[in-house]
Design a protein that fits this description.
The protein has a single domain, classed as Aminopeptidase, CATH 3.40.630.30. 29% of the residues lie in helices and 32% in strands. With 174 residues, the chain is of the alpha+beta class. The protein is globular and about 40 Å long. α1 crosses α2.
Length: 174
């Protein structure tokens, strides 16, 4: 299947809202299970764009949004060289190289913005995502034990980081 990777626009709010909630309903990949009101998705995209935080979507030939990746650049001067990554992919589109394409586009965009480091947190049990991040050059920087308690079960969060650019000897995922 062909995917077009392009910026998510406020006009995509309804389909992004639907995608996020489908992934939330799986109850194992996204940190929060809380559903946000549909109207706030448009405001979130607009605020994201206004702040200069890129959000990219993966769209099928028919225009269906099946994955996204976004970065949130540090809000204070001392951490503005870094950004936090978040992403999600619809279950039926996983394992097809889409995560690699989204992550590559994100890394390239972050490099163009002059960022020095990308950071993310991933559940320890999400081995496919952890393998993708490691292949892209991220390293495991620590673990937050029992960070999430959901339905009586604890989950650890693995903290990962990627230094960008020649100064750090890292190359973007190819």
């Amino acid at each position: 299947m062909n995917y077009e990777i392009r910026p998510v626009s406020p006009n995509d709010a309804d389909i992004l809202f639907s995608l996020i909630n489908r992934i939330k309903d799986e109850e194992k990949y996204l940190f929060f299970s809380l559903r946000f009101p549909a109207g706030s998705t448009r405001k979130y995209i607009e605020a994201h764009n206004e702040a200069g935080n890129p959000m990219l979507g993966a769209y099928t030939d028919s225009g269906e949004l099946v994955g996204w990746i976004d970065i949130n650049i540090g809000g204070f001067e001392e951490i503005r060289h870094s950004a936090t990554v978040g992403m999600g992919i619809a279950a039926e589109h996983r394992g097809k190289g889409l995560g690699k394409r989204l992550l590559s586009a994100c890394i390239e965009g972050a490099t163009r913005l002059g960022l020095e480091k990308l950071e993310l947190e991933v559940f320890e049990t999400n081995t496919a995502a952890r393998a993708l991040y490691l292949k892209a050059g991220f390293t495991e920087e620590g673990c937050l034990r029992k960070k999430r308690k959901f339905k009586g079960e604890y989950e650890d969060l693995v903290c990962m980081g990627l230094f960008l650019g020649q100064n750090h000897g890292e190359e973007p995922l190819r």
